[in-house]
Amino acid sequence: MKQRIFLTTLALFLFFFNLGIFIVSVTMFRDTVNRAEERILGEHYFIASALLKDFIAVESRGADLDGSISLLLKPYSYLSGDNKTRLALYKNDQLIYSDQNASVLEDNSLKPPVGGNRLATIRKASNQTYVIVSGKLSDPYHSYTLVYLYDTTEAISSWSHLKNNLFLAGFALSILLAFGLLLVLNRIFRPFKQISRTAKDIAGGAYETRLPVSGGDELSEMAQSFNHMAEEIQLRITELKNAADQKQQFVDNFAHELRTPLTAIYGYAEYIQKAVMSEDDSLSALQYIMSESRRLQTIAFQLLELANLQNNPLTCEELKVSDLFHSVRQTLYGKLAGKYIQIEFCSEIETIRGDVSLLESLLINLIDNAIKACGKDGHIDVRAAMENEKKTISVQDNGKGMTQEVLSQITEPFYRGEKSRNRNDGGAGLGLAICKQIASSHGAELSFISRPGEGTTAKITFTTSQ
Amino acid sequence: MASILIVEDETAINELVKRNLQLVGHQCVSVFDGKTAVSEIQNQSYDLIILDIMLPGLDGFEVIEQANKTPTIFLTAKNSLPDRIKGFSMGADDYLTKPFEMLELLARVEAVLRRTQKNASCFEAGDIKIDFGSHQVFHTGRLVECTPKEYDLLEVLVNNRNIALSRERLLELVWGYDFEGDTRTVDVHIQKLRKKLDWDDRIKTVYKLGYRLEAGR
After folding, report:
1. Least enclosed by CB within 10 Å: which of A19, B10, B97, B144?
2. CA pair distance A227, A121, nearest whole angstrom
3. Is the dihedral of CA A65, A71, A75, A77 positive or negative?
């Protein structure tokens, strides 16, 4: 594109520029020649009429005309003062007089036109250019032809010099123009080059690359929309990458989660098959096999529950909060026994819209976590209230709390607060992932506030106006 | 007879490893988290540590740093290459991933103990004494002549004592993968060993499985 513009502009310029120079030089040439012709015609006329008078005078004196011709003509030869003019006189095509240097004329038989007209021609001979005027003298001397010659070589050569200079200057100007044009075009096309380079970078994976935006013209507008596009692409790519990472994490965790019980089951089965053992040994090995199998079952069941929550719509109905709390308390009764944990329910709102069993399991899960965090002498506060005109249920404990880092990952499937994946407290590591899913299928938000050593607050905020 | 520390937070697996190692006569101590493991290592010297990586408190990598160069085998579910490399670069002697097979665990423990020369140089059961250093077998003090294959078979049986070994596995362990004979070769050699050592009651035939040397329990 740039090259095309450069070449066409340059070609057009060169064409018109040189055409101009050509026209100017042609005009000048004409001018020079015309001026020389006019001058010579004038001088010819003057000489011819003077000669006529001389002829008449000579004849009236009765002298021989042909004998005195050279005498008569001599003074006219020096008329112009320089050596540029020549003079010759013919009588009936016979040269009867010529200047000493008029050799040019000898080999050129001049045929002046019949009648009173004069003929002006330009003639070139051995590097010289002449303007030649020939004309017959008027009656009664019409047999005489006066030829006057003017050497215009100098004028022509000065013209040709000028013309050469013009073309030379034109050539130099053309080169300058070409450079200038190239610079200007480069400047104009720089943003395009930048855009294509940036696009290439982005295509190559450097999604954070942006174009610099300056000024307020069409280009900067284009750069802005280009940047916007790049931003969107980056955002989408990041989202996709995060999703893929999360999936990979899930699969990794899942594989790990399966590996531990499988190792135990296989190991104990092999042990029973091959080892020498007592009755007690074999019974406890069987016990391990069964409990590990149950763990696998729990994982499978919870995964299924998670999948169901994601796929199936829930049946919503208006629930009394006090009823909900009541049934939760009953379920938890067994778990609280012997743990010296105080649990308090407080309801400031009447009803809430949702699926009974799901909300119950959500609350039980959260309270269960709180119980695990508390240990002995814990205090758990379950509260339903209006906050910022939104219904909320919060579960607050005074347990060991979590760091910010742990907090950000607890709702991921199979995540464990502890670095090890100790299953001594039961559960498959899917509890909070399920909680989050239940909350989001109710159009609610599950959030956690926690500080190590100070306890944790889990809050469900119902964002819809139910 | 080596003293082995097992550091593994999953009770079931900890117990499983312990039982397997005890079968072949090792003494085992089980701990379930990193901090206890470190204090245990500092209080007492062990011949070998079986160490999980993901532990509560301190993780396995932190534990091995304070293990005073005790030979260590990592036993973990982390089987990615970077984890393995990290494990070895931190001074582990071996790296075993879950799920593992009993015989593999025992073989690796055996190998590490042999390398670190913490292995027993001889084995005694009843009237029989086996000297692993000179490859000699004694019956009530008298030298028993054994062919090299018979000795190899005896060593495999002793190293995996109290564990049933299938004929195929014995063939693999003693004769190698490329041996072309059939499992009756094993039966013949077992018969010879029983006769030479008077071990009819110790080398038991396990129904539908293979043979088991019962000793030292």
Report:
1. A19
2. 76
3. positive
User: What is the complex's ipTM, to 2 decimals?
Assistant: 0.83
In this structure, whether the domain defined by A314-462 belongs to CATH 2.60.120.10 is answered with: no
A207-312 maps to which CATH number?
Answer: 1.10.287.130
Claim to verify: residue B203 and residue B186 sit in the same structural domain: yes
Q: In this complex, do A268 and B99 lie within 8 Å of one another by their Cβ atoms? A: no
Q: Name chain B contacts of A421, Cβ cutoff 8 Å.
A: 9, 54
- List pLDDT tens digits, range A20-64: 989 998 998 889 888 888 888 888 888 888 888 888 888 888 777
- Does domain A2-162 fall under CATH 3.40.50.800? My reply is no
Domain end among B76, B95, B115: B115
Count CA atoms within 13 Å of residue B115 on its CB side: 14
Residues B12 and B47 both lie in one domain: yes
User: Within a 13 Å sphere around the CA of B193, how many CA atoms are in the beta-carbon half?
Assistant: 27
Q: What is the pLDDT of residues B21-47, one digit of tens each?
A: 998 888 999 999 888 999 989 888 888
Which residues in chain B have their CB less than 8 angstroms from residue A268's CB? 12, 16
| pLDDT for residue A297 is more than 70 | yes
Inter-chain CB proximity A276 and B56 less than 8 Å: no
Question: CB-CB: which of B52, B55, B99 is closest to A262?
Answer: B99
Query: How many CB atoms within 10 Å of residue B154?
Result: 26
Out of A116-120, A195-199, A422-426, least confident range = A422-426
